[in-house]
Each structure stands twice: as structure tokens, then as C-alpha cells.
Amino acid sequence: MVVNRDEKRALAFGREIIGRVSRTFAIGIAVLPGDLGKAVLTGYLLCRIADTIEDDGSATATRRQELLARFLECFSDEEKARTFATEVADIEADPAYLDLMRGTELVFTLLHSLPKKSAEIVEKWTRELTCGMSEFVGRYPDGIRIQTMAEYRRYCYYVAGTVGHLLTDLWYCSSPLVKQRDYERLLENCEAFGEALQTINILKDIAWDIEHENAAYIPEELLRAKGSSHETILHGDWRVRNREALAALTQLAREDIHHSLDYINAIPKMAIQIRLFCLLPVLFAVATLREIELSTAMLQSGGGVKISRAEVRSLILAGSISTISNKTTRWLVSKTSRQRFKLGLAKP
């Protein structure tokens, strides 16, 4: 009975904190059923804990690598999971992320409450993500400064492609609707699914990442090709050239969105909840990319790009209606990429 109470408390914590650390994923997770929803929730929160450590630009690289290593030890040592919140008390982050870190023990309680296979999947891919983050923290001890497109792709694999694998393995493990042939098709595009969202997040948060996390993810080779650099990426005099330098990344994002649609369309139509979970963040990302391509706000100090709450609400409803149809899903993504989506637009 004590275990059941602990699990209920952990689940209540997870459901409350997810809405504070990621409203986008909170919407999607809410539609997933039972143990599958709990597994995705647990995986996201664990990855977010690692990400919060990586993003603390005030901590030394040595300290962050040490904490990432201790975080990994929590998977095999319940006592270390219980005391981890004390270990990371010096990390600086937004209040919601700090509250998540304080609840690390509860997140590991959620992990241990999952079916064995689901827990193994979550652990496997969270470990891969965390090790990759540690690699880049060590590579750039004075703040991440991505140099080349090849390095950028490696970074995105670690922090987002791994999440695509985690989700795909959970779909196959947890849903009887996802067969072996479906799983094999999903594996073809699961990394692009995660990496598309990551690239768009990087593009919209260029200024935030530099000013708050001392991190520059735009490959410097793209900036230097236009005569700029990480040092001048937020300088007004270079704004036009810096905007031009982003073209390669916006094109990459569009290609990955295309593969993301192939990913969604490979999910069996009867797996409506899984399809909706995947479609909603893609719709939000496509709308955000549309705004990025019209803006320079992300290249200005304190700036960033967001879509309106009204459009978010419209996309949630439209996505819910169109999920079962591959044709309508593609139409909705195409329409959203061209103009701000409002309810009442006529379908073809």
C-alpha cells in the first residue's frame, strides 16, 4: 500500500510539472492511454532533468559532467535517486525546471512503476541522450559553440533523435496496433521526427540560448559564409546577413518536417491517440517555422518567436479532427506552413 501511495504521489507530481516545463508536450501526453502515457511522461521528464543540467551556463563544464554522471547512477541506485535533488541544488534554471529537479526521486518512482520493457526503453534512450549531452559539455567547456553542420546533426541526434527512438520503441512495445512492419517503417524517420522539432526550437530561441545559457547552436560555418560569427550573431549591423545564414537550417527543418509526416502517416490509423500525440507538436513547429521565416526577432537581444494562443487552440482542434486521415493531415500541415491557421478555413 505504501508503494501505491508513492506511485500516486509521483504520478500527480509528473502530471502537474509537465504543464509547467512543456505545455506543448503536456497537451500530447494527456491524450495517451494508461501505461503508455505514463511511460512517455516519465521519459520526457527524465530527459528534461538532463537537459536542465546541460543548459546551466553558470556551472562549470566539469560540474555539469559530474552531475550528468550522477544522474545516470540514479537508474541503478535508488538511494542516489533519493538524494539527487540535494546534489543539484547549485544548478540555476527557471523555477519550473528547479521544481522538476527537486522532484527527481518522484520521477524515478514513476520509472520503477512502469512495465519492465517500457522502463528499459526509457532508461536506454535517456542514457544515450545524457551521454551525448555530456560529450558536448566537455567539448565546449566555456559554452557550446557548434562549428559545422555535421557537428550540428550529431548534437541534434543526441538531444532529439534519441527521443524519436524512445517514442517509437514505446509505440511498438505498448500498442498492439503497431505491428513489426509498422515499427520498421517508423524507424526510417523517427530521428527526423525528433530533430525537426529541435531545429525549430533552436531557430526560435537563438537570442535566449546565447543570453541565458551561453550556448550558440547555429553552426559557425554558416555564419562565416556570410561574413558573420557567433560573436556578431545578435548585432544589429549583421542582422540581414545573419538572417541569410539561417537558410540552411530552415531548409533542413522543412526536410525533416516532410520526413516527420511520413513518420506520422506510418502509424496505423486506428492508433489515433499516438497519431495525435505526434501530429500536434509538428503542427506547432510548422507554424513556428513559418513565423521564423518572416521574422528577425530571434536575432535581436531579448527576442524570440512564438505563435499565438488562438492559433494553438485552432491547431489542436483541427489536428484532432484530421488525425485519422493521411491526406487531411498533410493538407493541414501544408496550410499551416503558408498562413496562420484559423478555424473555419475550407478544406479542399
Give a structural overview.
The structure is a single chain. The chain has 348 residues and is mainly alpha-helical. The chain has a domain of 116 residues. It is 72% helix and 0% strand. The protein contains 17 helices and no strands. Helix 3 packs parallel to helix 8 and helix 15 packs antiparallel against helix 16. It is globular. 46% of the residues are buried. The model has no long low-confidence stretch (mean pLDDT 94).
Task: Quote the distance from N terminus to C terminus.
Answer: 55 Å
* Uncertain spans: none
How is the main sheet built? none
Number of DSSP strand runs:
0
Short recap of the structure:
By secondary structure, the protein is mainly α. 72% of the residues lie in helices and 0% in strands. The N and C termini lie far apart (55 Å).
Notable features of this structure?
348 residues; mainly alpha
Write the layout of secondary structure elements.
Blueprint: H1 2-21, H2 23-29, H3 34-55, H4 61-73, H5 78-87, H6 95-102, H7 104-113, H8 116-139, H9 149-174, H10 180-204, H11 206-213, H12 220-224, H13 239-245, H14 247-265, H15 272-292, H16 309-322, H17 326-338
Helix pairs in contact: 1-2, 1-3, 1-7, 2-15, 3-6, 3-7, 3-8, 3-9, 4-5, 4-8, 5-7, 8-9, 9-10, 10-14, 10-15, 14-15, 15-16, 15-17
